Amino acid sequence: MAFGTCGSLFALTQAPMLAWHARLHRVDTHRYTALSLITGALLIAGFFTFPFGRMLGRWLFA
Predict the structure, then answer these.
(1) Cα separation values, 20 from 37, 39, 48, Å
(2) What is the spatial distance between Cα 30 and Cα 22, in angstroms, rounded to a whole number?
(3) What is the pLDDT of residues 1-33, one digit of tens each?
(4) Dist CA 33 CA 13 (whole Å)
(5) Are 21 and 29 in contact (CB under 8 A)?
(6) Segment 34-58, tens digit of pLDDT
(7) Minimal CA–CA distance to 34: which of 24, 22, 50, 43?
(8) Is the pTM of this model over 0.70?
(9) How far apart are CA 10 and CA 26, in angstroms?
(10) How far from chain centre, in Å, is Cα 59?
(11) How large is the C-alpha radius of gyration of the chain?
(12) Rounded to whole angstroms, how far apart are CA atoms 61 and 25?
């Protein structure tokens, strides 16, 4: 299974859980799920954007 597929499966499972927790008024669990989903998405996107000599990485670290 490719890494992109694994990330998509994670998002597809967490997004309904996020809505479910909000619907049941589980504020703390909803907040934790939302923060972990957003943080994970930003870390994965940054991992593939900045390193490996890509243009944005060269601009940032030059």
Answers:
(1) 14, 20, 30
(2) 6
(3) 445 566 677 778 888 999 999 999 999 999 998
(4) 11
(5) yes
(6) 998 888 888 887 788 777 777 887 8
(7) 22
(8) no
(9) 21
(10) 24
(11) 15
(12) 43
State the residue for tokens 């670290």: 61
Among all chains, which residue has been given the structure tokens 């957003």? 38
* Token code pair at residue 59: 């601009």
60 Cβ contact partners less than 8 Å away, ≥ 6 residues apart: 50
19-53 burial, b for 16+ CB within 10 Å, e for fewer? eebeeeeeeeebeebeeebeeeeeebeeeeeeeee
Tokens of 12: 């597809």
pLDDT of residue 1: 44
3-state helix, strand, coil in the chain (%, to 5): 80, 0, 20
